[in-house]
Amino acid sequence: MKIRNGFVSNSSSSSYLVPLNSFDTVFDLAEKIIDIRDEDWKDTGESPDLNTMKNLQRAKKNGISQDTPVQFSTWNYATWIKKTDKGFLVETCNNHYEISQMMDECGAKYGEDYHDLWLEEYKLGSSSNFFGERFYFLEIEKFGHKKYIKESGGETSEWCSKIGGKGYKCNNSILVLDDGTEICTKCEGLGELE
Prior knowledge:
Blueprint: E1 13-18, H1 26-44, H2 52-61, E2 70-72, E3 79-84, E4 87-93, H3 97-105, E5 109-111, E6 135-137, E7 142-146, E8 148-151, E9 154-157, E10 175-177, E11 182-183
Parallel strand pairs: 2-6
Antiparallel strand pairs: 1-4, 1-5, 2-3, 3-4, 6-7, 7-10, 8-9, 10-11
C-alpha cells in the first residue's frame, strides 16, 4: 500500500512551481516525471505503450530546444510543463503519488491551481493548459495548443465528450495542432488512462 506524504489534494490535478536550480531543462524535468509515471503504471498493471520517453529522446536528437513547453499523458489528467522566469510551472495528475513526493523533495511550491502559486500572468481559465502557449505533445510529436471555447464571464476549456466503454465521457483535453487539426489524444489510441 502506498502512503502519501507531503502534498495532499482532493483534486485530480495539481500545480507546482519547481525551483530553477532543481532541473537543468524542461526536458530533464519531463524525463523524471515520465520515469515515475511509467514505474507507477507497471506497479498497477496499467502500462499503455505511449512511446513518451522514446519521443522525448528523439526530440533532443532532432534539435528541439530542451526548454520547449511539453505535454504528455499521465493517469487521468495530462501533465503540462513550461519554464518561466519564476521556475518550472507544472500541472500534473496527482494520482501518481510519487510525483508529489518528488516535488516535495525538490522544494516545489504547491497549489491546487495556478492561483495558489500567484502565476496568473502565465495562465487564463481553469484548465490544464497554459492559455495561448504552444506546446510539444510528446505522444504524437506535434506542436499545438489546447482548445478553448468562450463562455459568458471569460474563457473556459473544451473537453472531449466521447462516451467510452464504461459509459463515461472521455473529458480529456482537446488539442489543436499547428495545422488546425483537432484531436483528443486519449481517443486517438494512446492508451486507456482511467
